[in-house]
Amino acid sequence: MGVKQYRCNVGHLSFSVMIGGKQRWLKFRGAKADEGFFSTEDVAEQRAIETSKRYLRGDIKCVGIYGEDDEGQSNVGDEVYPGEVVNGITTVQAAREYLVAEKGAKASELNNREAVLAYAERVGVKFAEL
Fold first, then answer.
1. Model pTM?
2. Which of 8, 14, 79, 118 could anchor a disulfide with 64, C-beta 3.0 to 4.6 Å?
3. Rounded distance, CA 130 to CA 87, Å?
């Protein structure tokens, strides 16, 4: 697949995840107090990060995938923002309900279209029909 780089909203963040029945610590580091980074090509680590509460809340984001494409060409520096495309949601209210039920959003924070779309972007969700 490639190396995925993640960014968190604090300079230094460490948290544990269970991978293959064993506890593993992931450590985000950064030069700024409000930004830390972690890169990995380990698919199990990527999956653990992307299913964590911190990722689903938007505290951690994937900011790039780097490595080789299918033809062996380097794509280092090409940023790809993986996300989830949700079909069948055509109203802001339905999008709000989806984010509350599936992504841990607080309904009180999603009081208008802009707030709903901003939260969706932060957690990597795109509503295809909205």
1. 0.53
2. 79
3. 9
Amino acid at 103: K
Amino acid letter at 92? V
Q: Please identify which residue in the block is written with the tokens 């505290």.
A: 59
Strand partners, 23: 18
Helix boundaries (H) for the chain: 43-50, 53-57, 92-103, 113-122
* Cα–Cα distance, 22 to 16 (Å, whole number): 10
> How distant, in Å, are the alpha carbons of 47, 57, 59, 95, 120 from that of 91?
30, 22, 26, 6, 14
56-91 tens-digit pLDDT? 888 888 888 876 554 444 444 444 445 677 778 889
CB atoms under 10 Å from CB of 94, counted, come to 16
Q: At a CB cut-off of 8 Å and minimum separation 6, what does 92 contact?
A: 112, 113, 116, 130
d(CA 68, CA 7): 21
Task: Walk across the sheet containing 22-32 and list its strands.
Answer: 13-19, 22-32, 35-40, 3-8, 60-66
